Amino acid sequence: MSLAVDGLISGLDTTSLINSLMTLEAGPQNLLKAKVTSTNTLMTALQGLNSSIASLATLANKSVTVDSLNLYAAKSTSSTVTTSASTSATSGSLDLVVTQLAQAQSGVTAAMTVASTVDYTLVASDGTKTSITSASTSLDDVVSAINTADAGITATKIASGTDGAGVTQYRLQLVAGETGVAGAFALHAGTSAMVTDGTSTNLLTAPGAAVIRTAQDASVTLWKGTAAEQAITSSTNTFADLLPGVAVTVSAVSADPVTVSVSRDDAAVSTIAKTLVDSLNSLFALISTKSAVVNSTDSTGKAVVSGGVFSGDSTVRDVKQLILNAASYPVGGRSPSEIGINITKTGTIEFDADKFAAAMKSDPEFVKSVLSEISSRVAAAATSASDKYDGMITGKITGQESLVKSLGTQIDNWDLRLTSRRASLERTYASLEVQLSNMNAQSAWLTAQVDGLNASNGK
To answer: Which ranges carry the Flagellar hook-associated protein 2 C-terminal domain (predicted)?
Structure first.
């Protein structure tokens, strides 16, 4: 509790005096608070750096094996035939004619107002029977029962005019969930037993019903017009592995042969290398920016030199050197510069696309082995730095977190100490005022006594 003692006797501004003294007393605590601020700034910067290094590790890991760099591009001579190649693809070409596309079976029932039964049986192309029971003969209930049976078809109620009496009629549209012959179906009005003994009715072949589209596989013909002519079918419009590692998707029937060709995609490998180099340089630029010394002036015009948040940080410096070494050291006694990956005098990595392309053309296996090894070393170095359990930067962040916690405890202790010191000063100045009051009272008494003696002596 603060004591109001401002100059009651002495006339001193004791509050200002105490505040000035407390400012001096709080000097060590202010230093601790400044240390917390700077530590938090460093910790935030380290967390950002750690995220960047972790991203670099993820990127590098994508090309740590030579197989991951076996990239091929597939193309066709028609826009209606599209291709995609995986890492298992090999160079080659193939001529094909698209004879038909895959389609899903669909059909409509005869027009009706209500269903004739609540029992239905779906018969799949392989003869499998699925029993379906609706809640009533209401067409809405029949549609709901079919759709919730998860039997591979979808039913929709479609308005279909009126009958002679003016009553609204509906058809049920039935569509297979999958394309291809394997998705063909029949929907019978009746139980499974009725289907077996032939007393049920196939709703898609009954009078007034119609099959709108038959189930059909996609088909292509290879080497058409030759002795090796061969038809290949697919339940979908995509044919997997017509060529090793190549998927072909068709979208229209063709009269003339379409050529599908596959070749090594050197440009894609070059993109991987360039992306890795760009990521390395972005990381090095981040570290350099936050380590730079900045010259400025303060409010009085005095020159001030301040270092970046990473200035003098040995852990960050070690991490940068570790990753730089991983990216620039020789591979099998040969320099990465042979494939266009060079270290510059400023400590960055340079990528020469033309030199890389030339190396890929002359010795692609060597290029891929070097890029794979560099990626592997960079991934290992980046993981060593950013691992969430024992990474170098992670450990540094953990240490800074502990330091902030310790500083916080010290600051709290200083709060108690300063509160106690302020109270002590207030008591001291209050006591001073009391003493001055007592002294003033004694002085007044003595003065009165002296005046009395002088008066009695006639002076």
So the answer is: 215-441
State the residue for tokens 């902030």: 404
Kindly report, residue by residue over 335-390, the tens digit of the pLDDT: 999 999 999 888 889 999 999 999 999 999 999 999 999 999 999 999 999 998 88
Measured CA angle at 52 (ends 325, 346), to 5 deg: 40
Q: Rounded distance, CA 121 to CA 361, Å? A: 63
Residue 333's contacts (CB-CB under 8 Å, 6 or more residues apart) are none
pLDDT digits (tens, 9 = 90+) for 114-158: 999 999 999 999 999 999 999 999 999 999 999 999 999 999 999
Tokens 């002495």 locate to: 10
Angle of helix 27-61 relative to helix 364-386, nearest 10 degrees, comes to: 150
**Tokens 């400044």 found at:** 34
Neighbour-count burial of 18, counting CB atoms closer than 10 A to its CB (0-12 exposed, 13-18 middle, 19+ buried): buried
Q: What digits encode the pLDDT tens for the residues 380-415? A: 999 999 998 889 999 988 888 888 898 888 888 888
Neighbour tally for 85: CB within 10 Å: 23
CA angle 183, 187, 193 (to 5 degrees): 115
**Tokens linked to 89:** 């693809």
Q: Give the span between the Cα atoms of 364 and 359, in whole angstroms.
A: 7
Question: Which residues, at least 6 apart from 274, have a Cβ–Cβ distance to it below 8 Å?
Answer: 351, 353
| Strand ranges of the sheet holding 119-124, from the earlier edge strand across to the other edge | 129-133, 119-124, 185-189, 201-202
Q: How far apart are CA 83 and CA 106, in angstroms?
A: 29
CA–CA dist 250, 100 (Å, integer): 9
Angle ∠(79,81,85) on CA atoms, nearest 5: 115
Give me the sheet containing 72-76, strands edge to edge. Answer: 72-76, 258-264, 92-100, 218-222, 230-234
